[in-house]
Amino acid sequence: MSAEDRIENAKVHYERSIFGGDASGLPVAERELDGVEADLALARGRILHARFFEKHEKDPRELELFQRAAELYQALGDLRGEGEARFWIGTYHQVVERDNDAALPHFEAAEDLASRADDSLTRSYALRHLAYVSHMAGQVDAARERMEESTELRRKLGFLPGVAANLVGLAYIAAAQGDRVEALAFLDEAQSTAEGSGAHGIMRQVEEARTEI
Please, which of 45, 116, 184, 199 could form a disulfide with 65 given CB 3.0 to 4.6 Å? Predict the structure, then answer.
């Protein structure tokens, strides 16, 4: 059911209660509107996250929105929604606050929730960011395992821009393991995958990685 449908449905339940004397549908309406609020909070939080990259200024409302979404999804028993919201809470801590310790439990929760909800896309994101946490902690083998698992999920989904982004990550990991030849091979595949899927932002990341590796 779309947000528009849920809002219209709430109106119907309101009218049945006020004019028909039947208030039995009000709890249903409230839950549906909680779902709308959660979806909207998550969407607004993502927009503020994009603004962070545009302006390089953090907005505390971003975290508040993701936390509100997680709270509502949890109350609704929506594992998929809660997993996505927890991922974004982790991303805020990792990317905006540069605090991997604060981000880690949220990424772990997101990966678990996404797995239980059979949400491969969110799980691939959680694993990617968990790989970054492991890499920064010097746990290169664990980082590679998580990034490879994320990449496999993305291949199965046909999410080629995401595959290209992960291949860049794998290139850095291979370089950290001392295998420059493999790292460059990952970058070659990342470039061809990015070009084929129109992922111009990832193509820039490939070129940056080539100068660093």
Answer: 45
- In 10 A of CB 137, how many CB atoms? 13
Question: Could you report the per-residue pLDDT of 17-52, keeping only the tens digit for each?
Answer: 777 887 787 888 889 999 999 999 999 999 999 999
Let me know: does 111 contact 123? Beta carbons within 8 Å.
Answer: yes
Selection from 185, 181, 150, 182 nearest residue 165 by Cα: 150
pTM of the model: 0.90
Q: Six-digit token pair at 156?
A: 């199965």
Give CA–CA dist 140/135, Å, rounded.
5
- The contacts of residue 35 (CB under 8 Å, 6+ apart) are 6, 72, 76, 78, 81
Residue positions counted in the chain: 213
> In terms of Cα–Cα distance, which of 93, 113, 95 is closest to 103?
93
The answer to whether 164 and 142 are in contact (CB under 8 A) is: no
96's tokens: 């905006």
Closest C-alpha to 88, from 35, 56, 44:
44
- Angle at CA of residue 88, ends 84 and 89, nearest 5°: 115
Token pair for residue 136?
A: 């920064």
